[in-house]
Amino acid sequence: MHQIELFMKYPHDVQEEWFQSLISAAEATEWGKSYGYSSIVTPEEYKRRVPIQDYDDIKQYVDRMIKGEQNILWPSDIKWFAKSSGTTSDRSKFIPVSMEALEECHYQGGKDMLSIYCHNKPENKIFTGKSVVIGGSSQINNFSPDSYYGDLSSILIRNLPFWAEFKRTPNIEVTLNPNFEEKIEQIAQITIKENVTSLAGVPTWNIVMANRILEMTGKDNLLEVWPNLEFYSHGGVSFKPYREQFKRLIPSDNMYFLENYNASEGYFGLQDRSDSDDLLLMLDYGIYYEFLPTENLDQEHPKTLSLGEVELHKNYALIISTNAGLWRYKIGDTIKFTSLSPYRIQISGRTKHYINAFGEELIIDNAEYALGIACQATNATIQEYTAGPIYLKGNDAGAHEWIIEFERLPNDFEKFCQTLDDTLRQANSDYDAKRYKNMALGFPVVHIAPVGSFYTWMKERGKLGGQNKVPRLSNDRCYIEPLLAVIQHIPNNG
Fold it and tell me: Is the confidence at residue 47, as pLDDT, over 90?
């Protein structure tokens, strides 16, 4: 807690120290030499020399590292690559994970999370029992004899210190079982006999596990299975749609929920207060932050702000430089500051339209590509469309709900829907994982909107005109619900 309080008190000094440390460490790398890191003294000079990057910009370097080349983006050997959802050109992307990132960032985040919980709830008994951690797909694949990739969760679990295994259940073989359906069954059978005091992981998977456990035991809620359950650490997707379900699954006012903001690229924030959803921006994890005002995203050489220049309640794209060799890397998230002393944030969205209600990371490029293929397959033409999530409810899986206004209707509507789903699964590995046997994400629900539906809806919202665009993807149901109401009152002219 002293270390956390230290960066809260001296945020700018801590960030300046990390900036100098990162630049110095990478001076002799191929990247550092090409941008003259040895002569960079200030963040201002760094920003002038190094352009903002996205995955497509660094992919050529990552591909070489995957094949075993070293000292390219970061000086220490990088053997692990975290697989996550793809870019416009790739089904998946592979984020380098250094040992420094594991120790100084991801594991430090886990330790700080437990420290904050124990500080906020000193009467806790979390260490008298075990923790159930559920990740996504956990299969490790060899690129070469000396490099591996897998979900971040599998990389973290495989590299955990030995003492962490004493407090975790089930064992590593079950936890990393690549067959998710089989894994859930094994986890349920093993953990119902354990004294589980805490849960961790993406809400989607925990609900699937919880429902199976209740079905298996005949109990009404998880407290009847694990009476000492007291803590749930969650992240990956917004918790708002799941809050009521967890209250039903764990009906206790003493249950403590804590959100963490971590990704393949790094561990960024922690919910340090139980009475607020804000996240404390973690400033001493080997990450140097810049903040790009979202209104400047489309500029050729946009100006970023340092921590001391940000303002409250404005949207910024997050730009990071890390101890895994990501330099001025745009991760795709947008945040806004809710406090400047200390620096607390809320995740406000993505730099692109997206749906990530279940960890599927569906981006606009995936949607446009899949719709195009579906139209080709069925001789259809789309006028307008939008999509959003149908949240998990009870034992029912979630789904994506699409409202599409066609200029020319598909000659085979069922084929259109099937092609849409199949193509999304091919284009996005995270979507494909969530669609596995309909466990977390079911087959998409597609509505044909009568001609004029979107015009009517935009007119009702006062959004007609060239500067206003139909929102394509949304991570909640704020567009789907009113649009459904509109199409119910418009005669379908066929």
Answer: yes
- The first and second tokens of residue 306, run together, are 């340092």
What distance in Å separates the CA atoms of residue 36 and residue 27, rounded to the nearest whole number? 7
Three-class DSSP category at 346: strand
- CB of 144 closer than 8 Å to CB of 68: yes
Buried b (16+ CB within 10 A) or exposed e, 176-187: bbeebeebbbbb
The pLDDT of residue 466 is above 50: no
- Confirm if 326 and 73 have CB atoms less than 8 A apart: yes
Whole-angstrom distance, CA of residue 193 vs CA of residue 210: 14
Q: Which residue has the higher pLDDT, 32 or 383?
A: 32
Task: Return the closest-CA partner of residue 109 out of 58, 152, 52, 63.
Answer: 152
Q: SS3 for 290? A: strand
CB atoms within 10 A of CB 413: 14
- Per DSSP, 305 falls in state B
Q: In terms of Cα–Cα distance, which of 491, 155, 93 is closest to 329?
A: 93
What are 169's strand-pairing partners? Answer: 132
Count of beta carbons in the 10 Å neighbourhood of residue 127: 13
Question: What is the Cα–Cα distance from 402 to 339, expressed in whole angstroms?
Answer: 37
- Distance (Å, rounded) from C-alpha 78 to C-alpha 68? 8
Percent of the chain surpassing pLDDT 90 = 66
CB atoms within 10 A of CB 460: 12
Cβ atoms of 126 and 198 within 8 Å: the answer is yes
Residue with tokens 């959802």: 85
Does residue 411 contact residue 404 with C-beta atoms inside 8 Å?
no
Residue 102 gets which letter from DSSP? I
- The pair of structure tokens assigned to 260 is 């963490």
Q: Residue 432: helix, strand or coil by DSSP? A: helix
Whole-angstrom distance, CA of residue 230 vs CA of residue 250: 9
CB atoms within 10 A of CB 321: 24
Mean pLDDT of 454-463: 83
Q: Which of 15-29, 225-239, 459-473, 478-492 has the highest mean pLDDT?
A: 15-29
pTM score, whole prediction? 0.80
Gap between the Cα atoms of 400 and 107, Å rounded: 34
In 3-state terms, what secondary structure has residue 227? Answer: coil
412: confidence class by pLDDT, cuts 50, 70, 90: very high
